[in-house]
Amino acid sequence: xxxxxxxxxxxxxxxxxxxxxxxxxxxxxxxxxxxxxxxxxxxxxxxxxxxxxxxxxxxxxxxxxxxxxxxxxxxxxxxxxxxxxxxxxxxxxxxxxxxxxxxxxxxxxxxxxxxxxxxxxxxxxxxxxxxxxxxxxxxxxxxxxxxxxxxxxxxxxxxxxxxxxxxxxxxxxxxxxxxxxxxxxxxxxxxxxxxxxxxxxxxxxxxxxxxxxxxxxxxxxxxxxxxxxxxxxxxxxxxxxxxxxxxxxxxxxxxxxxxxxxxxxxxxxxxxxxxxxxxxxxxxxxxxxxxxxxxxxxxxxxxxxxxxxxxxxxxxxxxxxxxxxxxxxxxxxxxxxxxxxxxxxxxxxxxxxxxxxxxxxxxxxxxxxxxxxxxxxxxxxxxxxxxxxxxxxxxxxxxxxxxxxxxxxxxxxxxxxxxxxxxxxxxxxxxxxxxxxxxxxxxxxxxx
Length: 448
Ligand code: UD1
Ligand code: CA
What we know:
Layout: E1 6-12, E2 29-30, E3 33-34, H1 35-45, E4 50-55, H2 60-66, E5 70-73, H3 80-85, E6 97-102, H4 110-120, E7 125-130, E8 140-143, E9 149-153, H5 160-163, E10 168-176, H6 180-184, H7 201-207, E11 212-216, H8 228-248, E12 251-253, E13 259-260, E14 266-267, E15 271-273, E16 277-279, E17 283-285, E18 290-291, E19 296-297, E20 300-302, E21 307-308, E22 312-314, E23 318-320, E24 325-328, E25 330-337, E26 342-345, E27 348-354, E28 359-360, E29 365-367, E30 377-379, E31 384-385, E32 390-392, E33 395-397, E34 402-403, E35 408-409, E36 418-419, H9 431-447
Parallel strand pairs: 1-4, 1-6, 4-5, 7-11, 12-15, 13-16, 14-17, 15-18, 16-19, 17-20, 18-21, 19-22, 20-23, 21-24, 22-25, 23-25, 24-26, 25-27, 26-28, 27-30, 28-31, 29-32, 30-33, 31-34, 32-35, 34-36
Antiparallel strand pairs: 2-3, 6-10, 7-10, 8-9
């Protein structure tokens, strides 16, 4: 049995019917990563050692997404208290603090989780409260004269006076791990919704004379995602944070609102990002890089001093070393482009190595696929590939080779050679002039 001081139970069994989706709600991504993984990452940053997700039956993708963290399955969804009870057999049992978070409330910062754990040292039950305007149908936090928490009343069960309370329940709690399950064993479903409410543990804890406290959070952090409209709102908030962080770290975003980041995008210093650039997951950009407008990058590396775009596409496995130039309408996939090489116009480079200082002419295509398998193209240092060349892989182009424009190269070319495949050119003296005057004469005759 593992032992740890703090654990978190992340409730994620809901189907999210309002998303109108075949995937579980918490699997919808924000900044390129499922919502539930944002919650887990922020809990870990806050120092939570053990994390258990409560999921519904038949959610294998969700189970994989939260791995290596454990999951507990809640078969019938009988309420938030019932969901936490589903994790009883999975938690280690020796925790001092058990945080309860929702998988569909992805923006709560590590700092807020840490504040709750801190407050737990003075109270057995800590609830994250907030003051949304308007307070809507949230549960209300009932406090006494000294601001100590007495109970949480669900909106459905609240009277007029309770509904007038501005302080609401965000749903997040941090509970004494040695008391949580014995409190939960006592809750009933005798309420307006006929559900087992997690929130009832507050009144039960007060019956036992345990301390209950409120930590207040801000509304933006507590945005819950139930629909795609709220998903878009959460995305906008997280994108703002990521843009802010990129600029603080030393990148210039010419039009921040049109730059789309992933949760893990890394930009160096003196990076300039022009408008309308998209970063998918796992992109790392070194210092002094300029990314021109309308470029799309995912799962790739961009070395120091690279210039790319406009309209460049770096697909998974693109690895641009220092000083590389990638121009407009160039697509690069699973290819190493070594120092100072240039791929400036209208090219596809896939499953390849381009040696240092090589120059890839406009319209060069690596023909890497035969409909069944992928093959590698290797281009040596300082090679010069003429425009509109098809390189039929597997093929090796040696160092310092010249390839004539318009060639289809399917055999290796050794260091220092010229290779071209081209029908011989024939010129015909005065042919065009004669042809044109003959046709003009014919046209004039027909008009009469
Ligand atoms: C809950 C709180 C309410 C609070 C609100 C904040 C309770 C009883 N009420 O209400 O005080 O103001 O959140 O958003 O806790 N879930 C399960 N299994 C279940 C039921 C729920 O996993 O059987 C999960 C849901 O997927 C969701 C979360 O728990 O992620 C909250 O459940 P939901 O039914 O939305 O609670 P609310 O009625 O919004
Ligand atoms: Ca809810």
